[in-house]
Request: fold
Amino acid sequence: MGLEEKLPSGVLLTTVEKVAGYARKGSLWPATFGLACCAIEMMAVGGPRYDLARFGMEVFRASPRQADLMIVAGRVSQKMAPVLRQIYDQMANPKWVLAMGACASSGGMFNNYAIVQGVDHVVPVDVYLPGCPPRPEMLIDAILAIHDQIQDMKMGTNRKAEIRELEAAALVATPTIEMKGLLA
Ligand code: SF4
Reply:
């Protein structure tokens, strides 16, 4: 669909938030950061078969200052956790985190003292991606979910109000430990 079909009269009305979201999601650069086997699938996404360049994201940045997406690809050891946090802190705002695979999301099969049981103990996570390892198509799907979040992200006072609402909703949510079964 071309621009002419979307703008038949040549006039477009929108909001600053929508334009900023559109620009941000189209200029997302991931940090070069792979921890274990999941990183091989992440590398495949950058290759010609899956072609992350379609979304302008093939440039994995070696400096966290130039990256706004951290893909945590693999298990996070206790030793690596402070390094991961330092890289996250060095990334400029706004920034997003994708927990790729069972290990990054929950510790996976490594239920032991050496592995952090979910990277959300160290950094805030925007999207969790299941699988061991997730296929490259699944990673692209998760990246598109982050794109949707970015497109709908509020700014300024709207953002502050949204954060207040999310925090209030989190405080009244049923704790996972009190849930019974998958549907409770
Ligand atoms: S989820 Fe599976 S593939 Fe990914 S890091 Fe863990 S063990 Fe490796």
